[in-house]
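so my prof wants the structure for this chain in the tokens format not the other one, which i didnt know existed until like an hour ago. anyway here's the sequence
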Amino acid sequence: MSSRTEAANPDNISLALNTLDSLKLAELQNYFGNDCVLTSLNEVDRNFANAAEKTAIFSTALLGDRVAVILNLFTQSPTGEEQTLQQFEWIIDRVGGYIDQAAMIAKVNEYRGGLEKFADALGGYDPTLAQQIYDWVIRPFEAVLAANEIQTLVFVQDGIFRSVPMAALHNGEAFLIEKYAIATTPSLKLTNFEVADRQGLRALAAGVTQQTTVDGTIFSALRFVDSELEAIQEILPRSVELRDQDFTIERFKQILEEDNYPIIHIATHGKFSAEAENAFLVTGAGETRLDQQLTLNILDDIIRRKTARTSVELLVLSACQTATGDDRAALGLAGIAAQAGAKRVLASLWSTRDRATTELVTRFYQGLSDPEITQAQALQAAQTALIRSGGRTAHPAFWSAFILVGNWL
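here's what i got, hopefully its the right format
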């Protein structure tokens, strides 16, 4: 037994979801210290029924003495009328007691620690923790998901859940990503549900391959960024590349001002901190060490200026990382889409620094050329291909770090 269902008025569940959304907005505003930007986005229409076809929304809430999971999905009645289906569960332990927030945080951190063990890749992956969290979060809803032929799961996460990938949860036979496309969003109110135009896609692809030192910290060489950028050029031939010394903040800003790039791809070391002002991406060159720090505030300003003219359909942040256990740092990833106006962000929770990243990114971009699948499904196909290729790259250390934030269509 892994959850406890208690009778709940549907109106109360809707009120709880609205309250959770408001709290998440407040967290983002507090993180970035900018109230007006997110307030202007609060007016986004929340009626996403058309976007939610075969999609289930999972919301988590970590309270002091217990943890809640709420399922929300749209379906049709036998007469063809649209209806909302909601299910609410408390997570409990094997003897029927509530799992409290501290216990959940410890277990989720342990789960993520196991995902990042590259050294264990050749010996295979032990899914015990992934199964336990699956039993807590997903298994109580399996029947509902199957009955409604759900294909995509979107997570509106709370606390520590923001810092771990749901894709690597395991049902005892397969990873969650092998059955469902998966995305996350900081708030449904901040999610733009427009379908991206897949015609004529091009990218501004920037990356740093060389070892560099920024503000006293040594960042190791990223050997496979070269092949990552080359793959983008091959798949999206009208793209423009900035590599190493050519990747400066001023040059990056200039190119975005000169032309339209629906995709911005940045492959470099990045640190997402508990404080927004300490979070940055490493650029290739600058007059001073601080000039090599593309901070979230600077990136936000650059993207905001661009979105005032043309939309950013996708921002990719490859080789970045958030620290284990730092759920507040993960707000940086979520907030880039919400604050700057990028419709969706594909980002890594930790740096893989491996050929597997190039393979995953290549497969993802290839999937974007197929208008019959969503971008979440393109990521699902890329991650599943690595799992089924066998060998070391089947270990989640190599594929599960990548999460899609924001619009999943």
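also thought this was worth mentioning. The longest strand covers residues 67-76.
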